[in-house]
TrEMBL record:
This is Aspartyl/glutamyl-tRNA(Asn/Gln) amidotransferase subunit B. GO terms for molecular function: ATP binding; glutaminyl-tRNA synthase (glutamine-hydrolyzing) activity; transferase activity. Coiled coil: none annotated. Keywords: ATP-binding, Ligase, Nucleotide-binding, Protein biosynthesis, Transferase. InterPro entries: Asn/Gln-tRNA_amidoTrfase_suB/E, Asn/Gln-tRNA_Trfase_suB/E_cat, Asn/Gln_amidotransferase, Asn/Gln_tRNA_amidoTrase-B-like, GatB, GatB_C_1, GatB_Yqey_C_2, Gln-tRNA_amidoTrfase_suB_CS. The gene is gatB. Belongs to the GatB/GatE family. GatB subfamily. The lineage of its organism: Bacteria, Pseudomonadati, Pseudomonadota, Alphaproteobacteria, Sphingomonadales. PANTHER family: GLUTAMYL-TRNA GLN AMIDOTRANSFERASE SUBUNIT B MITOCHONDRIAL AND PROKARYOTIC PET112-RELATED, GLUTAMYL-TRNA(GLN) AMIDOTRANSFERASE SUBUNIT B, MITOCHONDRIAL. It comes from Sphingobium boeckii. Residues 341-491 form the Asn/Gln amidotransferase domain. Heterotrimer of A, B and C subunits. SMART domains: GatB_Yqey.
Length: 492
């Protein structure tokens, strides 16, 4: 798809990329306890006895987390494993009170799947690429160490301890920062459509561990490094570029790449070594003795599949095929689940599929432009889909011209009033009264006799001048089509 190469002193190098995305599962409770998971809560205010690993506490699996993981697997066309098992990953750290993390190493709930990406979703003819997904497993998050609260001590916040995560592990199929960026965007979009994760990377509910290695094109895979907890699409792309170039420099200087865990520092624009990379045997994995294997029946799986919404790729094809939208418009409208839902509500309120192009143009140009200006998201729009549909209908039936509709829209943004009310109160209704328009045209032609003569002598570009003068005289309220017809007749 993308011929991304690093030019080194010894020739070209190819980058090999795999991503492990940690997505916080949408649930009001943690994976094995009933503690809340609200973002921004006071430290240690959402910690149950299970999360704090008090003696005698036993985990109880949250069924909603299982359901969301299965639905996510189905959305990426993955193998759903009806039998899966939880394992203990043993290590000691201050933010892990149990001394182990409950995860699924050997028998994950979701097996192999795939994700189709495009470097330009807005181009119908853009090349696509399939990225393999190796697995999705469920695991609990650890707590967090806070190093900036005291000059000599670190504090521990256990609010995230036990929060349910899906770890979505890709195959090493990406070959450029752009492909990795497209993969994260597409995965985030699907998670938000499905409703299994809110995708808020800035809040830490979705983050990526970035695996990077380099090789001469056609050679075997090189030694990889893993850069932990990268929390934006832009940072994922930066991490790959920086780390790949670092590895090339090391190899060309005669050094070797160490398999290790690294950290991305956006302020210094570098990756730094954290620790040597552990293998599975270092964690002494074994089946969790407190949890039975997870067995999913056919009815549960059928219910999960039936609950899936129309996903972005299918929705985009429908918008292009059934509604006749351009590839660009369809891509913009389906990129985010919230935008697609708003457009669907707008079309439902319009009640006419033939209005799809006008509706999409208005949403993408007028509404998005206004929201960007106001610094708002579409969920916070001061104009509702029903009000947007009412405005579009007033244009379609000739009550409003395009310019008058823009005036009404600005007032809607300020007041929240319905367009029909604004039209009535402000007297903004478009007129198609031929008598009134003919009278204005006659006055303009009399006042511009010289230009009339020039027009009749062949200077046809002046026609636009007469249209403009007529619309100005009628304060933009004249029906442009009627104005054009009557002017042609008067100038004939």
């Amino acid at each position: 798809m993308s011929e991304y190469r690093i030019q080194g002193a010894t020739g070209e190098w190819e980058v090999v990329i795999g991503l492990e995305v940690h997505a916080q599962i949408t649930s009001k409770a943690k994976l094995f306890s009933g503690a809340a998971t609200d973002f921004g809560a006071e430290p240690n205010s959402q910690v149950s006895l299970v999360d704090a690993a008090m003696p005698g506490m036993l985990p109880v699996l949250n069924g909603e987390c299982v359901r969301q993981a299965v639905r996510t697997g189905m959305a990426i066309e993955a193998q759903i494993n009806a039998w899966s098992r939880f394992d203990r990953k043993n290590y000691f750290y201050a933010d892990l009170p149990q001394g182990y993390q409950i995860s699924q190493l050997y028998h994950p709930i979701v097996g192999e799947g795939r994700l189709m990406i495009s470097l330009d979703e807005k181009d119908a003819d853009a090349e696509t690429k399939e990225i393999g997904i190796e697995r999705i497993h469920i695991e609990q998050d650890a707590g967090k160490l806070m190093h900036d609260q005291h000059p000599t001590q670190s504090y521990v916040d256990l609010n995230r301890s036990g929060v349910a995560l899906m770890e979505i592990v890709s195959k090493p199929d990406m070959r450029s920062p752009a492909e990795a960026g497209a993969y994260v965007k597409k995965l985030r979009s699907i998670l938000r459509y499905v409703g299994s994760c809110d995708g808020n990377m800035e809040e830490g509910s979705m983050r990526a561990d970035v695996n990077v290695s380099v090789r001469k094109p056609g050679d075997a895979f090189g030694t990889r490094t893993e850069t932990k907890n990268v929390n934006s699409v832009r940072y994922v792309m930066q991490t790959i570029e920086i780390e790949a170039n670092r590895q090339v420099d090391v190899l060309e200087a005669g050094g070797t790449i160490v398999q290790e865990t690294r950290l991305f520092d956006p302020d210094k624009n570098e990756t730094r070594s954290m620790r040597s990379k552990e293998d599975a045997h270092d964690y002494r994995y074994f089946p969790d003795p407190d949890l039975l294997p997870l067995v999913l029946d056919d009815q549960f799986l059928a219910d999960c599949r039936a609950s899936l919404p129309e996903l972005p790729d299918a929705k985009r094809r429908r918008y292009e095929g059934d509604l006749g939208l351009t590839a660009y418009a369809a891509a913009v409208l389906t990129a985010e689940a919230e935008t697609a839902r708003w457009f669907e509500a707008l079309m439902e309120a319009c009640g006419d599929q033939a209005m799809a192009k006008a509706a999409s143009n208005w949403l993408i140009s007028d509404l998005f432009g206004a929201l960007n200006r106001l610094g708002m998201d579409i969920e916070d729009s001061p104009v509702s889909p029903a009000q947007g549909a009412e405005l579009l209908k007033l244009v379609a039936d000739g009550t409003l011209s395009g310019s008058l509709a823009k005036q009404v829209f600005e007032i809607m943004l300020e007041t929240g009033d319905d367009p029909a009310k604004i039209v009535e109160e402000k007297g903004l209704k478009q007129t198609s009264d031929t008598g009134a328009i003919e009278s204005v045209i006659a006055g303009i032609l009399d006042a511009n006799a010289e230009k009339v003569a020039q027009y009749k002598d062949g200077k046809e570009a002046l026609f636009g001048f007469f249209v403009g003068q007529t619309m100005k005289a009628m304060q933009g309220k004249a029906n442009p089509q009627v104005v054009n017809e009557l002017l042609k007749k008067a100038l004939a």
